[in-house]
Design a protein that fits this description.
about 140 residues; alpha/beta; CBS-domain; 3-stranded mixed beta sheet
Length: about 140
């Protein structure tokens, strides 16, 4: 089985805690990502996701331009060691109810893996294990 470090994004994007939610959303859109780590000084203190923005900000009807990332971020950050398997990442995401995990190496965050990364891994895995001669027709049922 493949490891998380092989499917992770190696340069996760960051944002400061005092950045507005609108600015964070624009940064996510421009970078085509669903999460940003929240960085205070040199330390990563949380993660904000597209789901956080919808559930904790947009749904409240409060003015998004004045609401900061710090108010809606998830903290502490859920992590998984890069040497762990993709299956373990999938299980952890399901158990914790999250779609993004920070990937660590010796305790330091080195990347991020998303549920989409996991799905794409399994899609490629499934496609590589299908034999060209395999038939996808319905099974033949004989009559007695």
């Amino acid at each position: 089985m493949s490891t998380v470090s092989k499917i992770m994004s190696k340069q996760p994007k960051t944002v400061g805690p005092s950045v507005s939610i609108v600015s964070a959303a624009k940064k996510m859109k421009a970078a085509r990502v669903g999460s940003l780590f929240v960085k205070k000084g040199k330390k990563l203190v949380g993660i904000v996701t597209d789901t956080d923005i919808v559930r904790r900000a947009v749904s409240t009807s409060k003015p998004l331009g004045k609401m900061t990332v710090e108010k809606i971020m998830t903290s502490p950050i859920c992590t998984i060691e890069g040497a762990q398997s993709v299956d373990e990442a999938q299980d952890m995401m399901g158990d914790l109810g999250v779609r993004h995990l920070a990937v660590t190496k010796s305790g330091e965050i080195v990347g991020v893996v998303s549920v989409r990364d996991v799905m794409m891994f399994y899609k490629r895995y499934a496609q590589s294990s299908i034999k060209p001669e395999a038939s996808y027709s319905e099974p033949k049922i004989s009559q007695d």
